[in-house]
Amino acid sequence: MTSLRTIRGYAFDLDGTIWAGPHLLPGAAELVAALRRAGLAVVFASNSSRHGSDVLARELTRLGVPAEAREVVAAFDLTADEVLARIGPVPVLAIGTDDLERSLARVGHTPVPPERWTEARAVVVGNDPLFDFGRLRAASRAVAAGAAFFAVNLDARYPVADGFDPGCGALVEAVATAARSRPIVVGKPHPRMFEAAVARLGCPPAQAAMIGDSQESDIVGGKAAGMFTIWVAPHADVPAVVQPDLAVDGLPELHRLWLQAEDPSGSASLSA
Ligand SMILES: [Mg+2]
After folding, report:
1. What is the pLDDT of residues 154-165, one digit of tens each?
2. Domains present along the chain, CATH in parentheses
3. Which NCBIfam families match (predicted)?
4. Which residues surround ligand 1, an ion (CB under 5 A)?
């Protein structure tokens, strides 16, 4: 049976696992540093649909968890790759942040503005703080006219400091309803994110752990990918929809369990 002792690589979700709004969660920096000191691989796997891996890596570093862009698997960037793999470099109507357009352009796509939706061969929906009726009309008409339809993720909510914003999934459903079409989804729990995370960890899925606070995306997707799943559940009032391999109330508890697994004699202690 797999236990923490056999895990060679750790993939951490970001929102609700490593950070909440603008703050690191307790124990995040200490655990990541300890795993790295022990020579274990660490990556971050985020459904973020507002920013790509470069912005997320900079934010991690600023908050005290040093990270390079290549250590962050972002649904945002994989979406641009997915469009490319399926239909090549094409004119794309992006419903999302300026960062989404930049991410699409970086791999060769040509962003088109909503008023030129007839030119779009693909529509990509991310989280768009400026979403409005005109963008909904342009995106749904483009999809109904035959443009390929991609969603960064189907998350209902986007956590922010004082609660939540409507998530990417809420905007996707508006477009899907009007277009009468379902999107190709890239973010967790769909397999692409986990395949990319395991590939970057450089170990077999059974020796890789997925750590996250969302049962529906992190645990369901991690299990399907054959990874060891660790559910971070600070509020045990959420009923379990799927059984993780391990449930912890926060990263300090995971750190403690990891130290025990590494050193069953108990001579190690939690170091900051
Ligand atoms: Mg999360």
Report:
1. 999 887 778 888
2. 4-47+188-262 (3.40.50.1000), 88-185 (3.40.50.1000)
3. HAD-SF-IA-v1 (TIGR01549), HAD-SF-IA-v3 (TIGR01509), HAD-SF-IIA (TIGR01460)
4. 13, 15-16, 213-214
